Amino acid sequence: MHGTHPEKRPIGYARVSTYGQTLDSQLEQLRKAGCHGRNVYREKVTGARADRRELNRMLAKLAPGDVAGTNERPIFVA
Question: What does the alpha-carbon distance between residue 20 and residue 2 come to, in Å, rounded to a whole number?
């Protein structure tokens, strides 16, 4: 993990499982929740795959005080 942030930094993760699906609605919901730019991690990967590179990148960048979430709800406060 990286250094402590003085305020809660919203970090989002969006995923679809097939290339025929779009991330647009999830990304819009994350934007409305305050997640922007580099703080949004996205990927198109099947749920059956254990290797989710973007999810792992997001988790590695979390610092105390960050709030990580999906388009539906916060996952946890680091």
Answer: 35
